[in-house]
């Protein structure tokens, strides 16, 4: 398989999700931020596919920082789609538009640990200002739903491996600089719930597990991509920490179905987890699996003696429960190797 065939299958998977009430999107306007990111770009592609297959006649307005970046992520054919408009917008400033904004999906956010550690003020400002301005837009436009894309990191330090429901939060030290990211996610969830209560808009949050699949660039610096590169190059995996944190992962196309499921079926003021329990493991265990199954047992996992741990969250156990989103009809498929196989198929064709 190559990148094109994997992406085609993923779009078909998204469009065939029976638990998504697609008819609610007919003739609507969907505002999306973070559209050039991994999840956002997969979401836009899935919506383009659904619009064509189901004759939904909706409009997508993707608010982006740079049209140049749009050209790097999307094909000319995708950019030319009549149902999509990419519009440059500074989320730190109040947002105005003449069109409707029936649904708003806010996914714009820094994603790199190194950025959080070196630019904590920008991380906080971007998160809070963007969320406030988009919630104000939702109130102004009387939007049917607003969905904030949160992160499993907002749970903080959890020391039990029991299934983690949305009401069980751990400890976050607010003066540890790297924690600017999960603290901001918590505040943004509070904003969504507060706007839902005070302004009677259906605002919700979706706590995504770490997500990967087709669309991850070959030179991506995150640990799952680093491990894949090492296996592809037959090089040993070097971890900067002991790799003891355990959590679940999520496939890109399944993150998209979770987004649409909560957007259209969720309850205002609530937060939902999205993860695949079948992928729950430690970083070290994931490395061993990649070394053995993808690297063919020819590489091994090493641990840095004096690794820089300031860029990484504390050891924690994030065994996300998906009971709440499961009641909306959503469910994941596959295991960790499923995620890796499909990501590597796409990465290999781009190398």
Overview of this protein structure:
This protein has a 7-stranded parallel β-sheet, sandwiched between helices. Strands 7, 9, 11 and 13 form a 4-stranded mixed β-sheet that branches. It has a two-stranded parallel ribbon with strand order 8-12. It starts with a helix and ends with a helix. The chain is 41% helix and 17% strand. It has 12 helices and 13 strands. It is globular. The model has no long low-confidence stretch (mean pLDDT 95). The longest helix has 22 residues, at 120-141. It has helices spanning 3-15, 38-54, 67-73, 76-79, 113-118, 120-141, 180-199, 223-233, 252-265, 283-294, 323-326, 336-350; strands at 29-33, 59-64, 84-88, 103-106, 145-151, 203-208, 210-212, 237-239, 246-251, 271-274, 276-282, 301-303, 317-318. With 351 residues, it is of the alpha/beta class. Strand 5 (145-151), helix 7 (180-199) and strand 6 form a beta-alpha-beta unit.
Short descriptors:
single chain; 351 residues; four-stranded mixed beta sheet
Percent helix among the residues? 40-55%
**How many angstroms does the end-to-end distance come to?**
15 Å
C-alpha geometry:
globular
Order of helices and strands: HEHEHHEEHHEHEEHEEHEEHEEHH
Main structural class: alpha/beta
Supply the number of helical segments: 12
Break the fold down into its secondary structure elements and pairings.
Elements: H1 3-15, E1 29-33, H2 38-54, E2 59-64, H3 67-73, H4 76-79, E3 84-88, E4 103-106, H5 113-118, H6 120-141, E5 145-151, H7 180-199, E6 203-208, E7 210-212, H8 223-233, E8 237-239, E9 246-251, H9 252-265, E10 271-274, E11 276-282, H10 283-294, E12 301-303, E13 317-318, H11 323-326, H12 336-350
Parallel strand pairs: 1-2, 1-4, 2-3, 4-5, 5-6, 6-10, 7-9, 8-12, 9-13
Antiparallel strand pairs: 9-11
Helix pairs in contact: 1-2, 1-9, 1-12, 2-9, 6-7, 8-10
